[in-house]
Amino acid sequence: xxxxxxxxxxxxxxxxxxxxxxxxxxxxxxxxxxxxxxxxxxxxxxxxxxxxxxxxxxxxxxxxxxxxxxxxxxxxxxxxxxxxxxxxxxxxxxxxxxxxxxxxxxxxxxxxxxxxxxxxxxxxxxxxxxxxxxxxxxxxxxxxxxxxxxxxxxxxxxxxxxxxxxxxxxxxxxxxxxxxxxxxxxxxxxxxxxxxxxxxxxxxxxxxxxxxxxxxxxxxxxxxxxxxxxxxxxxxxxxxxxxxxxxxxxxxxxxxxxxxxxxxxxxxxxxxxxxxxxxxxxxxxxxxxxxxxxxxxxxxxxxxxxxxxxxxxxxxxxxxxxxxxxxxxxxxxxxxxxxxxxxxxxxxxxxxxxxxxxxxxxxxxxxxxxxxxxxxxxxxxxxxxxxxxxxxxxxxxxxxxxxxxxxxxxxxxxxxxxxxxxxxxxxxxxxxxxxxxxxxxxxxxxxxxxxxxxxxxxxxxxxxxxxxxxxxxxxxxxxxxxxxxxxxxxxxxxxxxxxxxxxxxxxxxxxxxxxxxxxxxxxxxxxxxxxxxxxxxxxxxxxxxxxxx
Length: 549
Hints:
This protein is α+β, with helices and mostly antiparallel strands. The chain folds into three domains: 6-124 and 163-255 and 485-548, 3-Layer(bba) Sandwich (FAD/NAD(P)-binding domain), CATH 3.50.50.60; 130-160 and 259-313 and 395-409 and 435-477; 317-387, no CATH class. The protein is 30% helix and 18% strand. The protein contains 16 helices and 20 strands. The chain has helices at 16-28, 49-52, 65-68, 106-112, 116-123, 166-176, 226-235, 296-302, 324-334, 336-342, 345-352, 359-368, 372-385, 436-455, 470-477, 528-548; strands at 6-12, 34-38, 54-56, 83-84, 152-153, 157-160, 180-184, 186-191, 202-207, 213-223, 259-268, 280-281, 287-290, 292-294, 307-312, 402-409, 418-421, 428-431, 459-463, 511-513. The two termini are 27 Å apart.
């Protein structure tokens, strides 16, 4: 690469956000030149300097970086499960519980929504309809017999991608475009100094294999390197903020993920055969899944965090479930070389919880359920791994109409949860913990759903633990670090955030961040799909900027 080439756009990071930004910008600006910089490369070693230089201060509740991100074209989509979820109105509203830390608004949400159709095309998850009442085949259907919508709804769904591995899926599209250049095996290090207009013209990049340094020049830069590395890059380039009175206080702060796990089962009163315990299939073949969720009004009135719950299997590792197929799948996950192929580390951990328990009892479950304990996994294996649109997960029918409830809950934006550089700026330290209010909201959400199901004579919750033990248990079982949010958040001024509503870094005129790190609140949603829609919005904004300049 020659350093005298001036690109119209340089995108740093090739995960879904980076690739969508490049492809969409190219689609609407086919005459513009684009440089895509990616740290990973084909044949890279198992370990890398970036992940090795991250120190997670609370490994009990936060996965290690190798389980959270991937290096290489496509980024974390290499091990992404494919869940596509929409954010909710409540996520953009100021509430007493979050108050001034909700630094975006409903207007931003409305500006992103028109781009969800194009995002759904990139993610290959069907039409971006997340309300079952808007889909003719499922209108007025319910999760279980006797269920009816009230302050608890079962109409919001998650949609599922293939899952789409962005590197494999879009490499040819990127490579065949003559105006797009991909640099794999390069680390973005230092932006050039700002000129009098607040623009930088270059960034120094390092060849990961040879350590050779060179400069990449561009008119605009988009940092799309994931929350960890996008935050690290800005922390290492504080000169970008020299036109401000100070470096934004929010930079690296207000780090959020999600609380998740199981503390209860739901027992429905009606016919077990009328319970939607698994996946729904749209006419176009895409998978969808119901979720139980409290309405916006109820969340506001009761000052609760946004949380969803879905029907799930009992704990795989506990042989008390007496299900041969579940025991077989649990034992398969324990085999090192096989477990790694069957599921990404974070998902595998959600099944095994890192525990080897009751192997003999699991073998007994397996043997007594033969041949079903082998036939069922074989059918699932075919649907999960051998066809193009893969079965997203495994959910088994309960003749007792009893299912575990998996919760996925919003986390408060807390200043103390943060990413910061060590004094020598070589290590990224991650400080992460749960607030008491995070945990309290999970418990109150379960209580509200339990009361509602009892009131409408649909069912009830059955807790797995004593009430006084729930706070401790939720803290112990919740482990994230995959959904990284909040460290470069959107706000109306640099006093409250790091980027403006167009994702432009405060103090600059041509540096942008396209990462879930810009989301001020985490909501209940996996951030990937909404980030894809934000990337499309950004590409359109950059086109508008080009035309005006």
